[in-house]
User: What shape does this take?
Amino acid sequence: MKRLGRSYRFFIPAVTACLMVLGAGAAEAADCTRPKGLKGQTPHVIKFDPGSVAISPEEQDWLEAQAERFQSHPSLEVCVIGQADKTGDTEINKKLALERAETVAAFLKEKGLGDKKFQVVGRGEAFGDTKDSLIGKLLEGELAADRRVEVTIYR
Assistant: This one.
């Protein structure tokens, strides 16, 4: 008998928390280290306004739901990766990306996940999705895609 489909396994979100601060001369990590033996969910993307570290009310609701859902899971780990768009100074963008990630991690900790392990990474603009157009201008929608934090929960 021929099998016509695949079965997909969906993983419930989990949480990681050890703070990675990228200093001068440090190797720049693009991502968090995947915890051994834990499965991760698809990253959830939280978007930000230009130059802002404020989390929108809609995203606060999502973060609160995740915190409530996983408070009792003992081995959860959370990966939080911040990013900035390519406008402005590179060093300021690197700092802004890390501040965004730290803001999201602090929110989750405040909502009950403070005892979990967190990895917090600021990518800056180096890993952004946008590409310079032929005329050297980026559309606002393309820039907005880079102003984000990716949250992956492992369990």
About this structure: The longest strand covers residues 148-154. The beta strands are 17-19, 44-47, 77-82, 117-122, 148-154. Confidence is low (pLDDT under 50) at residues 1-29.
